[in-house]
Amino acid sequence: MLRIAIDCRMIGSGGIGSFISELIPCFLKDNECLLIGTHEQCSPFLRLQNVEFCFCDIKPFSFKESFNFPLEVLEKINNCEAYFTPYCNIPSGITIPIFSTIHDVVFLDVKELTGFFGRFIRKMFYKRAVNYSEAVFTVSNFSKERIQKHLNCKKPLKVIYNAAPSYLKEPFDTLPKKEDKILFVGNIKKHKGLKSLLEAFELARKKDSNFKSKLVIVGNFENFRTGDKEIVEKLQKLSSSASCIEFTGKISNNELKYLYAESKLLVQPSLYEGFGIPPLEAMTVGTQALISDIPVFKEIYGNLPVTFFRAGDSEDLANKLLESIKAESKPINLSVVEELYSYERSANIILESMAELIPLFKK
Hints:
Layout: E1 3-7, H1 14-28, E2 32-37, H2 39-42, E3 51-55, H3 63-67, H4 71-77, E4 82-84, E5 98-101, H5 106-109, H6 116-132, E6 135-138, H7 141-151, E7 157-159, E8 179-184, H8 194-207, E9 214-217, H9 229-239, E10 245-247, H10 253-262, E11 263-268, H11 278-284, E12 288-292, H12 295-301, E13 307-309, H13 314-326, H14 334-340, H15 343-362
Parallel strand pairs: 1-2, 1-4, 2-3, 4-5, 5-6, 6-7, 8-9, 8-11, 9-10, 11-12, 12-13
Helix pairs in contact: 1-15, 8-9, 8-13
């Protein structure tokens, strides 16, 4: 049994928050854990066995985290045998073995996302994580290769795949009926490929007058206004056209679960991902996925019943949209999905690495 300090301060912050929330119960099965975060972040786990809570509201990537982390928190952390962070931020003053996670290096690969200074700062955080950690984890072989290219990581670098969150596997209160909806779950950043989807959606409407599907985008339109100008203009045009596009606003996990299940199709038009979890989430509740043929999607979804289209090719995506909407839904074998992707398996890889490397640190 290990005593592990776990950084919970990103719970509630999108995919990384879900990632650590799913790993914690797996860690707690045979180990003791010190959870570091706010009361709200840690409260879901406090009734579990072998858990202790340490309050900390210092923001990740803040000056205080890097140079003046609270001594009382550090004392509790350093009484553990290992420290695990679900991302690449590491507080100053930790004297026990550190195990960190770099999900992707998109800001180093896709230079349009930020300026030189932004890339420089991010690279410094990545390099700091590599230098301070006994092992680094990432979520795909694609990301592993990109991390090696940019960071020349000499530490053990291991793949721990994402998996569908547990709330999606719970039974529905009322079984949803399929509606004529195409779902997009993502953001306006260029690498998410929303521009291609909007162009394809417009093309599909022109190609086939019977194509009446609604495009549902998870999020608020207001959140898109500060993003790519061309995408915003397309969104405005489509939003005013026969109510064919809808923004959900901020929604809960349960609402997202029902939206996944109600939709005929999830489209993930990404140009770059470290893993890309929405297609996996959609399939977990029985919804088909139409996804770009980028290398990481070929790695993650190549053995699953998805439909690929040529990344960035709006014409090909439009044709595949029309074909997929008309096609009968095929049953999805969830046991195959779970056989490939399991948080318990990923947690075991982390724990095995800790068991191997902690004794070497003590020497």
